[in-house]
What does this fold into?
Amino acid sequence: MNGCAMIEDDLWDSLDDALKELKRIREPGLEFTDPSLEILGFYQGAERLNSLPWIGRGLSATVVARQPLSLSLKNRADYRAFIRRLALVTRGRFSPWKWDRGPVLTLAVVCLTAEPIEADDDQILAEILNHQDRRAAVIMGIIRLNLAQEAMAAALKQPPGDRFNDAATIAETLSTKFRRFVPLFNPEP
It folds into this structure.
């Protein structure tokens, strides 16, 4: 937080550094026009759950997307649908039927928004995260960034053991570069 807003190139550098340790591979994004969906890029990497062939494998993915201007976090149903659509696109991009991937897909969502980050955004994201359909992917975290405001909001799930911890790693890395809203201490009178 040096007084000037982070640009997207700096964000990519931060994500690359954070996910390099997890051996994640960066891949180009996609764009859909109707309804509008701009995915700036993906990261993906295999995880081994146990020694069984295909069943013992999983894939950890991160999707970096731009929130459509017509979408507001305050409209929880629409935001849930946006996150679900990101999960479905990621599932389609990284099919589980390849030999080196298993049936499990976990997903970390990094969402760039022009909408200001507010104090209750963490709580709203937690509600959205806890009410996700898991058929497409198990969402491990939603991280919402406003680059101009240099602010972030996040909701994370506890990863199982030392696997599928992309969301936690990204949140930890970005927390040094973005402000978080902390509730003010307000003692009872």
